[in-house]
UniProtKB/TrEMBL annotation:
The gene is adh2. Its cofactor is Zn(2+). It comes from the Bacteria. This is NADP-dependent isopropanol dehydrogenase. Keywords: Metal-binding, Oxidoreductase, Zinc. Its EC number is 1.1.1.80. SUPFAM superfamilies: GroES-like, NAD(P)-binding Rossmann-fold domains. PROSITE patterns: ADH_ZINC (PS00059).
Length: 351
């Protein structure tokens, strides 16, 4: 089959690789019908995620059709169409029983699985993928949910919702700022709407993304390149700052920006994947009673979000800006990597 293979920082190619095979009785093989590219894939290509080794097939989002099932799989069958969760979970360990699937302790080559697709095992930017612990790691695609919507449920919708909105403890009436209006930040804005915030402020360097954010529930937009960006944000609050600041970029500067705008007793929810450490000025912060959260998506709310997408309570359709054939994935990476010029949000890759 063909797949997108990582060859070290800055290097990738669409090349022939062996077809995946069932390795354990709990595995399935899925033919990819649609996949996409995540900001995290760009971090990997920058060298920010050193656990990804040369030769790894990238990608952790996808919708596909089951072509083979392992002997222990009874609730899925060949021909079923499924959403592949970016987090794989055994469903049986202590963490899985608490719904913290991101820290599943099952051994899948390395102790502890969680986010392994396109990270510790071969991923979904390929014609076929092996899915471990399939029964507890995929969601059947209901009638009426498109492949494009399904792909968004693999990662960005649960990530924005769980690590941005739920960890951020967004409550009715809150003023929420989201720094980074990429797909993950936009997913946080969209799902924040489920909790009744009074304002959702989109903050980005990219004017197009700040504008696009209005389609995802942002009530206000601020360009972070404006010298007075902070004053603009403060003016949208009672002067004390936002209740919840969600970081959805993954660089020290934007984490610090969250600290700059959060009000005393507010919450900073970090969603971004960071490649370096950040300064935490505890000497000035300690007195502010700020809650800080961070984490890897658990995908414990995927089923809820899937129901809301299916019933059109959540409109995920504006996320897809470009569609390519899977074989044109290098072009798709180029377009996604130059989002400010190309106005790309999510690029859909179809078989
Ligand atoms: P993206 O690269 O598409 O979007 C990032 C956005 O940040 C862009 O719109 C960019 O213009 C903006 N930006 C960059 N510098 C900025 C600055 N100084 N001020 C304001 N905005 C700035 O990425 P994405 O796919 O939306 O992902 C966002 C982050 O979430 C990434 O770090 C990604 O790795 C991470 N992520 C985390 C999890 C998790 O489980 N925690 C899961 C998925 C993705
Ligand atoms: Zn587990």
């Amino acid at each position: 089959m063909k797949a997108l293979v990582y060859h070290g920082p800055g290097q990738k190619s669409w090349e022939d690789v062996p077809d995946p095979v069932i390795q354990k009785p709990t595995d399935i093989i899925v033919k990819i019908d649609a996949t996409t590219i995540c900001g995290t894939d760009l971090h990997i290509l920058k060298g920010d995620v050193p656990a990804v080794t040369e030769g790894r097939i990238l990608g952790h989002e996808g919708v596909g059709t089951i072509t083979e099932v392992g002997d222990a799989v009874t609730t899925l069958k060949v021909g079923d169409r499924v959403i592949l969760s970016c987090v794989s979970a055994c469903g049986r360990c202590d963490y899985c029983k608490k719904g913290v699937y991101s820290h599943c302790r099952a051994d899948e080559g390395a102790p502890g699985i969680g986010w392994i697709f396109g990270h510790l095992i071969d991923g979904t930017q390929a014609e076929y993928v092996r899915v471990p612990f399939a029964e507890t790691s995929v969601h059947k695609l209901p009638e009426g949910v498109s492949d494009a919507e399904g792909v968004l449920l693999s990662d960005i919708l649960p990530t924005g919702h769980e690590i941005g909105v739920q960890y951020g403890n967004v409550k009715p009436g809150d003023v929420v700022a989201v720094i980074g209006a990429g797909p993950v930040g936009l997913a946080a804005m969209l799902t924040a709407g489920l909790y009744g915030p009074s304002r959702v402020i989109a903050i980005d360097l990219d004017a197009n993304r700040v504008e696009e954010a209005k389609k995802f529930g942002a009530t206000d937009g601020v360009l972070s390149s404006d010298p007075d960006w902070k004053e603009q944000v403060m003016a949208l609050t009672d002067g004390l700052g936002v209740d919840v600041a969600i970081e959805a970029v993954g660089i020290p500067q934007t984490f610090t920006m969250c600290l700059d705008i959060v009000r005393p007793a507010g919450t900073v929810a970090n969603v971004g994947v960071h490649g370096t450490g950040v300064d935490l000025p505890l000497d000035t912060l300690w007195i502010s009673n700020i809650v800080m959260t961070m984490g890897l998506v658990n995908t414990n709310t995927t089923d809820i979000l899937l129901k809301m997408v299916a019933s059109k309570k959540l409109d995920a359709t504006p996320f897809v800006s470009h569609t390519f054939k899977l074989a044109d994935i290098l072009e798709a990476y180029d377009v996604f990597g130059r989002a400010a010029e190309t106005k790309a949000l999510k690029v859909l890759l179809t078989a």
